[in-house]
Each structure stands twice: as structure tokens, then as C-alpha cells.
Amino acid sequence: EIHIKEPIEKEVNPHLLPGELLLCEASTVYKYMQEDGSNRGTYGKLVCTNFKISFLDDDSASDDNEPQFKNKIVGENDITLQCVDQIYGVYDEKKKLLTGQLRKYPEKLIIYCKDLRVFNFCLRYTKEEEVKRIVSGIVHHSQTPKLLKRLFLFSYASAAPNNTDGRNQTVMFETLEDWRDELERTKGNVRYKAVTTNEGYRVSEKLPLYFVVPICISEESILKYEGRGIPIWCWSCHNGAALLKMSTFPKEQDDSTSQMQKAFLDGIYKTISKPPYELLKLDDLSSSLPSLQDIQTAYTRFKQLFLIDNSTDFWATDVKWFSLLESTNWLEIIRRVLKKAIEVAECLEIQHTNVLLIEESATDLCCVISSLVQVMMDSYSRTKSGFQSLIQKEWVIGGHGFLDRCNHLHKSEKEEAPVFLLLLNCVWQLVQQYPPAFEFTETYLTVLSDSLYVPIFSTFFFNSQHQRDTNRSGESLKTQTGPFRFLTVWDWAVQFDPKAQAFLNNPLYAEKPKPDKSQRKTARFKHQRQLSLPLTQAKPSTKRGFFREETDHLIKNILGKRIGKFINSADEPPNSLREFYDSWHSKPVDYHGLLLPRIDGPEIKVWAQRYLRWIPEAQLHGGGTIATAAKILDLMEEVQSLQVKMDEEHSQAVSGDVHSVPLLRNSARLSSLFPFALLQRQSVKPALPTSTWKDLEDEDDLVKRDDEFVDLSGDML
Amino acid sequence: LFFAFVNEEKFPENGWMVYNPMSEYRRQGLPNERWRVTFINEHYGLCDTYPSLLVVPYNATDDDLKRVAAFRSRNRIPVLSWIHPETQAVIMRCSQPLVGMSGKRNKDDERYLDVIREANGQISKLTIYDARPSVNAVANKATGGGYEGEDAYPNAELFFLDIHNIHVMRESLKKLKDIVYPNVEESHWLSSLESTHWLEHIKLVLTGAIQVADKVSSGRSSVLVHCSDGWDRTAQLTSLAMLMLDSYYRTIQGFEVLVQKEWISFGHKFASRIGHGDKNHADADRSPIFLQFIDCVWQMSKQFPTAFEFNEQFLITILDHLYSCRFGTFLYNSEFLREKEKVAEKTLSLWSLINSEKSKYTNPFYSKELNRALYPVASMRHLELWVNYYIRWNPRIRQQQPNPVEQRYMELLALRDDYIRRLEELQITNNSKISNSSASSTSPSQMVSQVQTHF
């Protein structure tokens, strides 16, 4: 029998955020350390609030080794309600999924989190009524359907003093100005315009308040089908070719309606396929990429590989690791998405054609592909603020249904799909293939993915700009404080202090050399002049003339087939994509230019930091990429301090003793799980596989042979 | 015969001087009161596949050794490879005992193993790691070999490490070549890779070496490692365990010593395994055992990017010249034959090439750390295919050279050195300027902008 420690007299209270309410609690809960099958762990209090589930270690006061990388909102023993993936109860050594009403209460509680943490709690020493309260409380608040207004987001927004200065480099795309600036930045303003048609959400509640369409599109046609069938601008390439997206019509039973819709689409295609517009290519993503259902299934299987109960589990799955990985199909989906993005980039860059991405809602795979294409083609999207602006543009304002896709309200599992995570996984592939090209680190991407489940930011907790705006007013809550002021996730200071934020910035980033200020001004001036020119005077280049002849033919094609796969279709030389890919890879990389991911089998990897970070068996003491990163940071500190010293010398200040040697971190002993490692085990024991593989049936004859064919017994005669 | 014998290249460094067995044993603190150097094999009379100089227990006489040799396959008796500086536990290597079907015993061998056990004053059992799968070890009895049975060696504990034989490894590499050449498998890359078993073999070799190293280090117990003949799997295990335990072997020179000692001098049959100069050689003797060892080293260096003084290019260069015959380093099967052919006089050493251009092979991230055991994680989650070696000919897979991370680090290093130099200059001028204050040569703001572009 395990000896129960005398409860310590001091009261441990949860750290509550403004608006956070304690809902239920249980004491003498035993939290197992994740690492082994032994029953090592700590006693503490398990609490559930309207924001999180939290384990409060009885001995927490003695915990003096503050981690270097600490989240100020979500501690290492905190699980936000939205971060809970699945809860299992253990009854007589049997695991059972807990979802709704409970008849019996379990001895153990296992909580699997969406950020891949696994918590094991033992309730055997807890009072029965406390067990009942805490288990049903946790299950109820984290697993059952919820009203939007019951999200912690609202309690926090009404209680927290919003004193963020809101000054952020991120472009939020909430104003017409933002869109116009983006058009100007990409020089898309010659042929595209930002429209105000959706003010008051007259067109559609799914579309943002402001968006950009080809200049020739009339307000009337935008309004006709609530914005469906309208090409919406995403981005313009340096050569003028544009990336567009369009939501299509749902399958219509009624023949005449569908005839009308078809005629409408034909008209639209005709308009935007003639000069001054480039040749248009269509890509119906719903047929050329895996479905949302496929993506959801793949990810569900994939994440399961990292939700490991114990060491035995780890080594048991290690034996067939590669085939297990493959069977999830997740990496293959990443590969296909990256390949599609390369195809689109080739059309824009080499073929100089406009690309129109088509999807029923234009808010899922369209977001993934258009974001990836921009990350690959526009080096601004590889800066931190540029990437954040991109996420605002394509996802948050673009109308990706975060609330439904993340199933934050537990309304319907059918709607759930990790579309945004898919993007982050794809971007990570690029980040690890081209480290100097990104201003941010993989840690940035990891904490961004974690932020999907932190409901104090509005960023990932609405389906559309309309939904956020209508719920912001606060009328239904009868608060007199006026509209809620939500926080944005891009305000990283809310979660991390400056020291921790340093881990989000890539020390290897090769910053773009800034052009001279005077040069910039003239460029801007020129640009404005261009704007004022009437459209008809835009001189078609000889190249476009060449395309124009083809245009008619293509339009016929489009009209004939309505919507189909046109990218990489038969009328294109089949090897052009391969050529583009190969020729790009044969040249040295320009980190500020076009960036193409390598997509051959061995190049697509598992995002180890995100998926392995909580698994002790996988940690390398003093190893991993963090080992080199720490060396680079150390050296940078040294260079900076030398710089300071030099300035002192120049100013002839009293030099010498005042200056200290740069503080070198003990990089050699960092764990590869850093900065996420929960337990900095100082164990010197190496991790040893507990199950090994011996299955070589197909080579039985070889296995049985000896190295050398010499009979030793003969030797002895 | 071999190009190596007519190669007239000149190098400032002489690689044949890198390895001197006596100084390597001295570096380990040997001989000492428990271990002695013996010249019994000076003319390769005891064992023609062993080096001339051996380290054995002080309490074993040369006559004992001769009697033990009779009971060990090809006379490869247990000798010392490495001694732990603190625990004094040792790594010994040898070949299998000649137990045979009838279960023969040899009192001298039994006593010799006990002498080894007692040499570091340990009371617990001597640990024997038989690299083979147990079924193979048993099967070996049929041809006169076998393993140390419990009855005969009550003071020893035997573990099988389940590493497969040279034929299995050869087949595995063949399969690996099939999935990367002429085209890299597209759609089912991971399962194709798994079906080659290459990384699983790497995992087993590393797991075995970790066990050896851990036993010596935290288990404070001496270990005896053997397979059948003790020149393939045994060499892999002892050298990898030594690499994990002794940071000296993680330097460029130390690694050269390690290869020279555990592989070349202890008779890994390079000529047979590679098939140097033997077109009609039976395929059966060839096997990528040394390549597999280098792959394991690469896996370790990948997991611990700051722990090794050498870089990936160093490992690739070694492998390139394993096959090139440009140097004498990997020619012939044993020291005995190499001496006979006067390899050291007539050919150049690979280490001459490398040591003459050390900077090319140096890992800029290396941080020297002494006496630290370095255990890789032998999990498939961390093991990866060495793309830059196995698929390097493929332009679509080729990694960016030079490595961008390394390059930027080098830039920073250059910048730091530049600052230090300028700072020294400044301090000198400032000191002289105390009397006459006037304009300075470079403005600090200029310097600042320079740094910013680098960040």
C-alpha cells in the first residue's frame, strides 16, 4: 500500500485569470509522472474552472527551477478546456472513453491533450464525492456541447482590463485601407479593387467586410449569389499574375437553377479571361486534393502515434514505426499539398497565368494552398509580421471556420478537420528545409499551434468576421461595458515574456537588405502614377499577346467542361512542372526569392518538436537541433557584447572592468525537448529498447548462415 | 597492384604517424598494476589476425594466453580494448569459444575470464555480450563454435544482442540501393525503407553498443564482447561503445585512432568485405559492415550535432576512400599482411589527406566536453536514412552545400574575430590617443549596421 503523505497545511490555490471561475476541485489526487510504469508521482489538487483543468502540486512552493520558456497563461500542469482531446477512465485496469453522463466513477483518469500531452491522475485516495464532482465536472465542461457565449473568451474579455496597446505590425485586414495597402504592396491594384459591397454583410455573412475582386466585376454580380461564383483576389505575383479563389455553387437539384448558375459562371470566366487579365487556370481543390474527411482521418491516426501511455508503448510502436507512420497517410497528405502549391507557383511564375482555386466554401483547402503559395513566393510572408498578416488575410478574415474545424464547442464532429494544422505542418517542412529563409522558428509554429486552444484570443475562436463582429457587441450578456475588446494571438507578450519570446525569432534569418530610402520613395511615386492611368492604356506585353490567341481556345474549353481540373491538364506539356522543380533545385537558393519545398519521400519529415516534445524516451540529453541553436545564440550574444564594448571604446568611456563576459548558457546539457521539456531528467541511464525486432522470415536461409564458411571443428583436428 | 602503390601525391602530414598503439594505451593509463602489454604476438605467432601489441591482465602469463588461444576461434583471445578511467571496468574483445557439439570446456579459458573479472576488483559477474542472435550462437556449435555456457562460466552472465550476420546486412544494403536507385521511391517511401531493414539493423547495433557502454560506465562491470570471429560485429560494438564513453574518439585524430585500432589493427577483413582488387571474389564474403559502423557514427553525430569535432564530409570521405584504393589505409585483411606488403612504406595513408586539410572536415559547432558518456537514442523516431550519402548523386535530393546553418555560424565566427581584432586595435589607439584626442578611423554606427544585416 502506498503511504499517503499527511496533507500539507498550506492552502494551494489555483492561479485564476480575470473572469475565471473555480467550478470544482478534488484533493489528494495523485499525478503520475508520465515517464515510466513505476508509480512515481506527486499528490495535489485537481481543479476545473471555466477556462482550464489544473493540477496543483502540493509541493509546488519548493519548485524553484523556473523554466526558461514559460507560458504565462497556460502552465505546465494546466489544460485549457479546448485543449482536451479525449478523456479516459480506468476501471479495473480497463480503459474506457468518458463522454457524457457517468454511472460509475473511475479509479484513474487519463487526459489526452490536443497539444499531445498525456496526463495520468489516480483518484483512489480522493474522497468519493470529490471524485464524482471533479470527473463529471471535467467531462461536462470539456466534452459536451457548449454555447458560443459560454466560451471563456467572453468572460475574459469582459473582466480583463484591456490595456494592450494594440500596436502590432500585423496587418489585420479589418479595414478597407488594409486591403488597399496589400494591393499596392503586391502591385495588384491595376486590375483588382477592394470593394465595400459587403458592408453590413449585405452580400454574405461568410465573406469578410472588405475583400478584393477583379476591377471588371460588378457589384450586381457580387450580390447575385451571395458572393458565390465570384473570383476573390488573394495575392498578385511580381509579374502581375494573380492568385484567386472562388466558392462554388452547391449541387443543385433543380435543372433551371443550375443552368442559370452555369451561365453566370461562364459570364464571369469570360470577363476575367480576356485582357488585361492573364490566361486563367482553374483548380478545383475538392477533386485535386484529399477531402477534409481524409485529412481528419489521417490526422486522428497520426496523432495517436504520439499519445503514448508508457515506455513499453513507445518501444512496442518503435518496431514498426515507419509503416505505422505511412499507414496514417498524414505525411502523404502534406506531400500532396506541397506538390499542389508547387504546381500553382509554376503557373504563376513560369506560365504567367492567373490561377483560380475553387472549393465549395473557399475557406479550407483554398486557405492552405493560397497561404503556402504566398509563403513560397513572397518573402514578406516569411517574416513574422508578414506571416501573421497572411494568416489574418487568408484565414481569420478570410473566413476559415476555426470554431467548427477545431470543434471548440463540441457541436459536431463531422465538421472537425485540422486544416490550419495542415498548413503549419507544411510550413514547418519549408522552415526545416530552408532555415535562413524564415524570420520565425519552429518553436514559433509550435506555440502558434498550441494557441489554437487558448480561448483568451479571438483569433481562432470564430468562424467568420461576421460572427465575431455580431458577438462582440455584448448585448446578450447585458454588460454595460460596450463591445468586448478581444485580444489577438499576435500579441505574443500576453503569453510570453520577452526572454521567452526570443525563442520565437530565428537567429539564422538572413534579413533582406533594405533598399535605400530615397530609392523607395521614387518607386512609390511611380507606382501611384500608374494607378491613375486608365485601364485601357495598359500596354499588353508581347508575351500576353501570345497568350491571347490561346485564350479563346481555353475559354471554349472551360465553357465546355464547366469546372474541372485544369492545372496540369493534357493541353500542357507534362514535364513542365518537373522541369520547373528540377531547374529551381539545380540553382543556389535565394532566401528572399522563390522557395520550393523538396517533396521526395525522404524529405518529408515528422515535425519532431511538436509531436515528440512530451515523450521522455525520445529526448536526447545535450542533443537535437537545440544544441546548435544554443551555440548560435551564445555566439550572437558574444558578438553583441563586443559591439557594446567597441562603442564604449569609441566614446572613450571607462572601459575594462565594467564589462562582463557574455553569459554562456550551459548548452551542452539542454534536452532536445527544450524549450518544452516538462521534466529535465538528469538521469545518465540511456534509453534502451525493450522490444526488438527479429522478423526476417523472408531471408531465413541468410539468417541461418554463418559469417564465414569454415568448419572450426575441422580446424581443431 | 593497387593504385595506392603508385600514387605519388604529397601531403604535409603523414597519416601513418597518427596511430601508435603504445601511446594510445598510455593515453588510457596503461599498462598499470593490473594490466600489462604483451609482445607475445610480435611476429603474429599467437594470432595472425591480431596486432603485434596486446594488453592483457597482469595476472595472466604468456603461457596462459597460448592455452586460451587454443580454445578461441582463430586464436583471437580476449584482449583489452578500452579501460574506464574511473571504474577501471574494461571492454574486452575476442572470438567465440570452441565449445562445439560436445560442449567442450577449457579450464584456462575459464580461469582467464575470471582473472579479467577480478582485474577491477569487481565482485559481480563478468558480462559477456554475444553479438549474435542466440539461435545462431547455438547453431555455431555444429561447426565447432558456440558460446560461454553457464556451467563452465558460473561467474559470467551472457546476453545475446541479436545482431544479424554479414549476409543479412549485405542483402539489406542491396534492398536499400533498390529503393533509391535509379529513382527514389515515390509513393510508399516509408514502408519501402522499412522493408529494407537497414535502419532496424542500425538500431540493433546501436542498442548493443549502448548496452556495452552503459554496463562499463554505470554498471561498473567489465564486459567481454564477441561474435563468431570477432572482427565484424565485435568491432562495431567495441568501437561504438568507446565512441560513446570516451570523448577523445569524437575528435578528428581520436576517431582516426579508433578506426586504426579497433578495425584495421584488429583484423576487420577490409579486403574480403570490400573486395579490393578481386573481381571474381565470391560475393558471400563482401559485406557493408564498416559502412554500417560509419552510418551509426553519422546517426550519433546527427543526434548530437555539437559533440563531434568532425563533420559529415569527414565520414563521407572515409567511405569514399574505403573503396577508392588511393590510400593504403584500408588495404588487406590484417596487420600481418599489411606489414608483409610494406603498406606503410609504399602507400599513403588516408589520414594524410584529411589531416593536411583539417578545416574542411571540422564541425564548427563542436564543443569540447570531457568524460561525458554520450548515449544516442536507438529509436526509429530519431534514426534517419543518411540521404547525403546514399542518395547524394540525385540532384533533386541533394542538400544545400554548404549547409546554410553552418555557413551562417561561420560568418558569425568571422565577425566575432573581426571585432576582437578591431577592439584590440582600438584599445591601442585609444591608449595612445589619451594625449591627443582626434577623429577615429571607423565610426561605431557603421559597425552596428554591419552586424544587423548579419542577424
Summarize the structure in short.
The complex is a heterodimer of chains A (717) and B (455). Chain A is 37% helix and 11% strand.
Which SSEs are present, and which pair or pack?
The complex is a heterodimer of chains A (717) and B (455).
Chain A: E1 22-32, E2 41-49, E3 52-57, E4 78-80, E5 84-91, E6 94-97, E7 108-113, E8 118-122, H1 128-143, H2 152-159, H3 176-185, E9 192-195, E10 211-214, H4 219-224, E11 232-236, E12 242-247, H5 255-273, E13 280-284, H6 285-288, H7 292-304, H8 311-318, H9 321-328, H10 330-349, E14 354-359, H11 365-377, H12 384-396, H13 402-405, H14 419-433, H15 442-451, H16 465-472, H17 498-501, H18 517-532, H19 542-561, H20 576-586, H21 608-612, H22 625-650, H23 700-704, H24 712-715
Parallel strand pairs in A: 12-14, 13-14
Antiparallel strand pairs in A: 1-2, 1-8, 2-3, 3-4, 5-6, 5-7, 7-8, 9-10, 11-12
Chain B: H1 21-27, E1 35-38, E2 54-57, H2 62-69, E3 79-83, E4 90-94, H3 107-118, E5 126-130, H4 134-139, E6 156-160, H5 166-180, H6 189-196, H7 198-217, E7 223-226, H8 233-245, H9 252-265, H10 270-275, H11 289-303, H12 312-324, H13 335-340, H14 343-346, H15 350-356, H16 387-390, H17 404-433, H18 444-454
Parallel strand pairs in B: 4-7, 5-6, 5-7
Antiparallel strand pairs in B: 1-2, 3-4
Helix pairs in contact in B: 5-6, 7-8, 7-11, 8-9, 8-11
Q: Could you please describe the fold and organization of this structure?
A:
The complex is a heterodimer of chains A (717) and B (455). Chain A contains 24 helices and 14 strands. With 717 residues, chain A is an alpha+beta fold. In chain A, a hairpin with an 8-residue loop joins strand 1 and strand 2 (41-49). Chain B contains 18 helices and seven strands. Chain B has one domain. Chain B is 44% helix and 7% strand. In chain B, strand 5, helix 4 (134-139) and strand 6 (156-160) form a beta-alpha-beta unit. In chain B, helix 8 runs parallel beside helix 11 (289-303). Chain A: It is found in: Cytoplasm, Myofibril, Sarcomere; Sarcoplasmic reticulum. Chain A: Residues 173-611 form the Myotubularin phosphatase domain. Chain A: Pfam families: 3-PAP, Myotub-related.
